[in-house]
Amino acid sequence: MITCVVDYVIDPAKLEAFERFGRRWMDLVERHGGTHHGYFLPSEGASDRALALFSFESLAAYEQYRQGFGVDPEFIAADRIREESGCVLRYDRTFMRPLLPSDLPN
């Protein structure tokens, strides 16, 4: 399993648009074979940082999901929210391997 961690710098004045963007992508990840762990939005501290975490069975499964970018009308519509609103100023994507409580020895 791989988990994609997306670290966003967002425009705090456009948080509602970012939430619409996030809801669309959570649905798309789930429908295209991944598990979305949610978006984590500013609460206290920095008001311009957000995170998203989602997992796929493998990097190959993630790459299959990525084939829809720029092609699938639903992917394009979801990304249009970000582009038209300007809610995302910058983002970085990192892939991690989770260590989960279920991985602990008995």
UniProtKB/TrEMBL annotation:
Look up and give the organism this protein is from.
Kribbella orskensis
Task: Report the residue ranges that make up the NIPSNAP domain in this protein.
Answer: 7-99
Q: One Pfam family from the UniProt entry?
A: NIPSNAP
Q: Which SUPFAM superfamilies match?
A: Dimeric alpha+beta barrel
Segments spanning the bilayer are none
Q: What is this protein called?
A: NIPSNAP protein
Q: Which InterPro entries match?
A: Dimeric_a/b-barrel, NIPSNAP
